[in-house]
Amino acid sequence: MTSKLVTKPRAKPTETAVPQNADERYRAPALDKGLDILELLAQQPQGLTRAEIVKEMDRSASEIYRMLERLVVRQYVTRSLSGDRYALSLKLFALANRHPPLNRLINQALPVMDEFARLAEQSCHLGVYDRGNVLITAQINSPRGWSFSLQRGARVGLMDTASGHVLLAFSEAADMQRMRTEHTALDGEVPITETKLQATLDGIRKLGFLERDSQQSFGVVDISFPILGPDNCALAALTCPYIRRIDTHIGPDLQRARELLSHASDILSLTQGVTR
């Protein structure tokens, strides 16, 4: 498959590696070179050939080759089967997921999720983007014992779940493209046309959340809100698989559950986000 090189104005590495007003006593040219390669490849979801990297970085082919080989050996960069194209691996993403901010988010989310589950009498789960799909990082059951829930550590589809669509809707265009490029279909994935996907994402952005019948289970209504970072992009999706009881117990209805979930997501978000 032929990919189109995205050309962006880029200063030479020697000009951008260290600010002019910084103390240059501790410069590390080799490290700067490696970081420049990683930053360049991060802008190219389909990867680049060695010749394209050399041209973009304005360095000699030999020094780029040596650095690329080390990055491949350390698994930060992957080489295509044909051997002529390089792209970022998922190692940086995996390292980022071990970073304390994710743990802090989970630790902050759990008591808020527990309060939601108690008041709404429904389960809820927290999903984050992970290697092309959605990873369930936290989950709380309904205290009533009647609920639908996903196990912590489960992986669900990016392209056919409420969590996945919310994460896509509240991502920067470049990030969304990367997420879709990395996506691999999971077992049972429900196909979606490009037209329907774009309409779904537009609707989520307009409302600030997603509410619809589950595409995986009968009798479940998925309600999903983004947990937003300072840039109004989704750090995670907070989702309730709402189940309506039909016995004599009268619990919170769908509208009340939606209000409670919206409040929970607002508490966890780092910005006021979108208007709901």
Kindly report the average pLDDT value. 86
Q: Count all strands and give the number.
A: 8
Shape: elongated
Gyration radius over CA:
22 Å
How is the biggest beta sheet arranged?
Answer: 6 strands, antiparallel
Separate helix tally: 10
Oligomer: single chain
Q: What proportion of the residues is helical, as a percent range?
A: 40-55%
* CATH hierarchy class name of the largest domain: Alpha Beta
Amino- and carboxy-terminal Cα gap: 42 Å
Topology at a glance:
Layout: H1 13-16, H2 29-42, H3 50-57, H4 61-73, E1 77-79, E2 86-88, H5 91-97, H6 100-120, E3 124-130, E4 133-140, E5 155-156, H7 162-169, H8 173-182, H9 194-207, E6 210-213, E7 221-228, E8 234-242, H10 254-268
Antiparallel strand pairs: 1-2, 3-4, 3-8, 4-5, 6-7, 7-8
Would you kindly provide a brief summary of this structure?
With 276 residues, this protein is α+β, with helices and mostly antiparallel strands.
Describe the protein in words.
With 276 residues, the protein is α+β, with helices and mostly antiparallel strands. It has two domains: 13-89, Arc Repressor Mutant, subunit A (Orthogonal Bundle); 95-268, Beta-Lactamase. 41% of the residues lie in helices and 16% in strands. It is built from ten helices and eight strands. It has helices at 13-16, 29-42, 50-57, 61-73, 91-97, 100-120, 162-169, 173-182, 194-207, 254-268, and strands at 77-79, 86-88, 124-130, 133-140, 155-156, 210-213, 221-228, 234-242. The strands form two sheets. The protein has a six-stranded antiparallel β-sheet with strand order 5-4-3-8-7-6, with helices on both faces. Strands 1-2 form a two-stranded antiparallel ribbon. A hairpin with a 6-residue loop joins β1 and β2 (86-88). α6 (100-120) packs antiparallel against α10.
